[in-house]
Design goal:
The complex is a heterodimer of chains A (about 120) and B (about 90).
Chain A: E1 4-9, H1 16-31, E2 35-40, H2 64-73, E3 77-81, H3 82-87, E4 100-103, H4 105-113, E5 117-120
Parallel strand pairs in A: 1-2, 1-5, 2-3, 3-4
Chain B: H1 6-10, E1 16-19, H2 27-36, E2 44-49, H3 54-65, E3 68-74, E4 79-84
Parallel strand pairs in B: 1-2
Antiparallel strand pairs in B: 2-4, 3-4
Chain lengths: ~120, ~90
């Protein structure tokens, strides 16, 4: 995959549509042979807390848990903002879905500047 | 992109059919990705979808990934989308 798309997710389960669309785009990217990275910041980090995706479904879209499973199966990367997790009390290693990597700002900067393009939701 | 005429599409017997009816975006696209890997090069995959956006989505995807979009036949409440595997 020569191209890379980084998608930043800042909306949580309280806004199911804006929580879901980044996953749709990321799965479509992977299906299109484009590397995809989902970066979670602000309330978006709650989406990758274990058990939360199963409770999110936006009308006319697949359930978030299905999209998350597809994204992981296709090899997408999940990066999660460390201070955003701490401020929400999501601190235990087992609190996050499998494959999620906790990072800080410099990693996001590196991912975005090395990407073909980036999106922010 | 060369799209086949409807009469030509009607004469096609696909090597594999994937039924993505009832699946919301990006479901049909994922089924196309999986399905294209299940046919040999030069063979034809047919995707059934009840999502009206699938026909343009699969056309864009085919161009992006180097497959050959052959066209669409309307059916009873769904579309039959044809793609030839090129690589």
């Amino acid at each position: 995959m020569a191209e890379k798309l980084v998608i930043m997710v800042t909306h949580g389960p309280d806004d199911p549509e804006l929580a879901t669309i980044p996953f749709v785009m990321a799965v479509a990217a992977l299906a299109s042979e484009v590397e995809a990275v989902l970066g979670f910041q602000a309330d978006g980090v709650r989406l990758v807390a274990r058990g939360v995706a199963e409770q999110v479904a936006a009308p006319s879209f697949p359930p978030l848990a299905k999209l998350l499973a597809d994204f992981r199966e296709l090899g997408g990367s999940i990066l999660v903002c460390s201070p955003c997790l701490q401020s929400r009390g999501i601190t235990a290693p087992d609190d996050l879905v499998d494959g999620a990597v906790v990072v800080a700002a410099a990693r996001f900067v590196a991912e975005i500047t090395s990407a073909t393009n980036s999106l922010v939701y | 992109m060369t799209v086949a005429a409807a009469t030509d599409l009607q004469s096609i017997t696909a090597n594999k059919i994937v039924d993505a009816r009832g699946s919301a975006c990006p479901g049909p696209l994922l089924e196309a990705k999986k399905g294209i890997g299940a046919v040999s090069i030069s063979q034809i995959l047919e995707i059934w979808s009840s999502d009206p956006a699938t026909k343009t989505d699969i056309a864009a995807w085919s161009a992006k990934v180097g497959q050959s979009f052959l066209g669409v036949l309307p059916a009873d409440g769904y579309d039959r989308v044809f793609v030839r595997r090129q690589k």
